[in-house]
Write a structure and sequence with these properties.
Two copies of one chain form a homodimer.
Chain A: E1 2-10, H1 14-22, H2 24-28, E2 34-37, E3 44-48, E4 56-64, E5 68-75, E6 84-92, E7 95-105, H3 110-130
Antiparallel strand pairs in A: 1-7, 2-3, 3-4, 4-5, 5-6, 6-7
């Protein structure tokens, strides 16, 4: 199995960072403005990036305030189906460390390379927004490459 | 073995992108301003980010204009020792696709998460600089987290 891994440290309280990951409104501030569904364990969240259907739908599998958010992809690109996304948070020197893993990829396809760069971009968007800068969720994002 | 994978598409000719990866001056424009050594097959490149020794030294193992640059890490963080960095380039719709892989990690340590986000940041720096924006090599980079 292959995985995309990232880490950012954010100069903000862990409870505030957790809110950005655990609530629909929070996620909308850094990944995509168009999040639909319910962020509760067992609920589904649909992530839209334009188009006639969501780019991905995740089942929320863990919400452990303020330490962990975990999703399981139930709809989306074939390569994403049954992959998992986890955000593990901890405090360190008054800041919040976010360790991200998008695991369960079956093959190291080029789309994984693309998604890895995109995840970094959006995690930096999260960080920037929380540190008083500009966050860049879709559709305000810069396109990283040809698949947008 | 674990790997960091990224992809960016750059609106610039493949030969120009190749130069940014295959020459010391090119690398200095997007990764670190302080690159020392010789970018020739068999030569060593030392990448400095301040401090009293280079953060990493890579042996240049492949230079295939304008398609591929490959390095092998011979000195640096323990986790980087004997890892490889490859940049594969191709033209697509008048733009240049860069597929990056930092392979050969023995374990999915948290430092891999950190480096993955940092590589994305610097590949986006490369892209931005080539598209008329601002590139952000060290020391002009934004610190992604506590290990700088």
């Amino acid at each position: 199995m292959e995985a995309i891994r990232h880490r950012v440290t954010i100069d903000a309280p862990i409870t505030a960072v957790y809110e950005q990951l655990a609530t629909r409104e929070g996620i909308a501030s850094w990944w995509t403005r168009d999040v639909r569904g319910e962020s509760r364990v067992g609920g589904d969240l649909a992530f839209w990036f334009g188009g006639s259907e969501p780019a991905a739908v995740m089942k929320v599998v863990e919400l452990v305030p303020p330490r962990r958010v975990a999703w399981h992809c139930i709809q989306g690109p074939d390569d994403w189906r049954d992959t998992t996304q986890t955000f593990d948070l901890r405090e360190e020197d008054g800041r919040t460390v976010v360790v991200f893993t998008h695991g369960g990829w079956r093959e190291p396809v080029e789309f994984l390379h693309h998604c890895s760069t995109r995840w970094a971009y959006f995690l930096l968007s999260l960080r920037s927004g929380m540190e008083g800068g500009k966050s860049t969720p879709w559709p305000e994002d810069e396109k990283v490459d040809i698949f947008g």
